[in-house]
Amino acid sequence: MGRDKALLSFRGRSFLETIIAMLREAGIERIAVVLGHHAGEIRGAADLGGIEVVINSDYRQGQTSSLQAGLRGLATTPPRAIVLCLVDHPAVSAEVLRSLLESFRQSAAPVTIPTLAGRRGHPVVIGRELLPELLALSPEEGANTVIRRYRQVTQFVPVHDPGILLDIDDPEAYLRLPER
Fold first, then answer.
1. Cβ contact 154:147 at 8 Å
2. Cα(33)–Cα(54) distance, integer angstroms
3. Does pLDDT of 3 surpass 90?
4. What gap in Å lies between CA 69 and CA 92, rounded to an integer?
5. Alpha-carbon distance 91 to 109, whole Å?
6. Of 33, 47, 125, 138, whose CA–CA distance to 87 is shortest?
7. Where are the domains of the chain?
8. How far, in Å, CA of 94 to CA of 28, rounded?
């Protein structure tokens, strides 16, 4: 991208603040944010009041190291599930997350994923029972390594929100993002 995605502007806030607001609106009370590259700048620029901030000093090892740092930060009182949000998916609505959480509560599936027209998106709800497997991943493996093992028992939740598929990985995708 050429700059920190967490601080890109979307709907009058940074990507990170937009995601935090969505989580809060959906009823999530405990929110942990993992910061790595430019952690100090992001922490200084974003409103992270009431948020558990985890610093991943091993961020150069990749996304899995950040996931694992966040999980280790939650280890003292592990939640029933985690909602795995990626900072480059800022356009997800709280309504989608509420649907995912309700589906998780009803099904107790180890993984709950939103879909739109058959395409899987984000965020993903992952049950507590999979957290040890996520912590055991090597740096080269992603969370999908664990998620795929549970495909047969994954709860796929059809939604009507294209935001679950919007992945802002480059300047062109950012320019196409509606309501920037």
1. yes
2. 6
3. no
4. 24
5. 25
6. 33
7. 5-176
8. 10
pLDDT band, residue 180 (cuts 50/70/90): low
Residue with tokens 């910061």: 35
Using a 10 angstrom Cβ sphere, with 0-12 exposed, 13-18 middle and 19 or more buried, the burial of residue 106 is exposed
Whole-number pLDDT of residue 76: 81
The DSSP output letter for 40 is H
Cβ count near 8 (within 10 Å)? 21
Topology of the domain comprising 5-176: Spore Coat Polysaccharide Biosynthesis Protein SpsA; Chain A (3.90.550)
Spatial CB neighbours of 23, under 8 Å, sequence gap ≥ 6? 31, 83, 85, 94, 97
